[in-house]
Design brief:
Length: 358
């Protein structure tokens, strides 16, 4: 009996010892990992580009280390003035020869839907959705009807404006991650009028002209309106201008996260891109380099980054289409504005197949 108790006691001690050793190994590996340059370049920019989780960078690293890493990861935007004459709307109509499998995918329209095409994006580290809008005149800006008091979900903005598709637009005050989309940052232009202008805008104007061309400019909104801008939000950075990509140093300083991007091809086709992220085991998110790579596949000629993170949401035919990193159970976060697709020409649109999150 005594020998049996000794054996049981020995087994307990052995299991405890093994557990302690395993924990020591995990801690040691963790300490080694956080000191690697690759982990610093991933962790610090990812934390610093969030609105309410910057403390995660300073929890592991000193202020000097954070500043050093951020100085090595940044985006050098093009200083070129956009040449809107390069955009010839409808120039790909009737295309029969495709230059790549991506172009064929883009122009192989869904049966009964001449308005837009939904394309699934699946990569080893992230997943997302791309929407091609064939007629840029169908793209318009929807703004919360409660602007200054509360935002609305992209789904609501699409429904309230008789839309088919939508993607979130500019940023807004998000103190401690509890912003409700009520106070947009920067300027908002709608129907050719400046309806909002608030400090804190990040980047330049992401706009559409009266000729339905995506226009990226650092001009003030009043001048942009005089130049023909009818709708705009303020955000960035610009990723592609006149077919030339921004120069990305490191990961661009924006880390790995959910993304929302708007772009236009030379033929006028507008692209909405959503990358899902912060979902372990499903999709970690994308860097700016990742986003640019996707856009170039589909020959984006001009492109700009929209508000990302938990705000990255896409609506299709009355449904929240992507998996947002937060707020999905409520239909997505409430935001200030969204770029949406309306059926202005009364063209038929067919609801796409059910979203597949595999």
């Amino acid at each position: 009996m005594k020998n049996r108790k000794k054996k049981l006691h020995f087994k307990k001690i052995s299991k405890l010892t093994i557990l302690i050793v395993l924990l020591d190994i995990i801690v040691l590996d963790g300490l080694i990992l956080i000191q690697t340059d690759s982990f610093k370049s991933f962790w610090i920019p990812t934390a610093m580009t969030t609105m309410s989780h910057k403390y995660l960078a300073y929890t592991l690293y000193s202020e000097d280390t954070v500043n050093k890493v951020m100085s090595e990861n940044y985006i050098e935007q093009s200083t070129e003035v956009m040449n809107l004459d390069d955009i010839v709307i409808g120039s790909s109509e009737g295309i029969t020869h495709y230059t790549s499998k991506y172009e064929e995918e883009l122009f192989t329209k869904d049966s009964g839907n001449d308005v837009y095409k939904t394309i699934r994006i699946i990569e080893p580290k992230y997943k997302g959705w791309l929407i091609a809008v064939y007629d840029p005149s169908d793209v318009t800006l929807a703004v919360s009807s409660k602007l200054g008091k509360a935002g609305q979900s992209v789904n609501t903005l699409v429904k309230n404006n008789d839309g088919l598709v939508g993607i979130n637009g500019g940023g807004f005050e998000d103190l401690d991650g509890w912003g409700n989309g009520s106070i947009p940052y920067g300027a908002i232009v709608q129907n050719g009028k400046l309806i909002w202008n608030h400090a804190g805008g990040s980047g330049g104007l992401i706009a559409f002209t009266k000729d339905h061309k995506l226009y990226l400019t650092n001009d003030n909104p009043e001048k942009a309106i005089l130049d023909g801008v009818v709708e705009a939000v303020e955000f960035g950075p610009n990723l592609i201008v006149n077919g030339k990509t921004a120069k990305i140093h490191g990961d661009g300083g924006w880390g790995t996260a959910p993304r929302s991007v708007i772009a236009q091809r030379k033929d006028g086709v507008v692209l909405f891109l959503i990358i899902e992220g912060r979902l372990p085991g499903y999709s970690t998110g994308a860097t700016m380099n990742d986003v640019i790579d996707i856009l170039l596949r589909y020959k984006a000629y001009n492109a700009a980054n929209l508000d990302g993170g938990a705000s990255s949401t896409m609506s299709i035919e009355g449904k929240l289409w992507n998996r947002p990193s937060a707020g999905g159970e409520y239909g997505g976060r409430t935001v200030s504005n969204a770029w949406i697709v309306t059926n202005k020409q009364n063209k038929p649109a067919q609801a796409p197949v059910k979203a597949n999150y595999k």
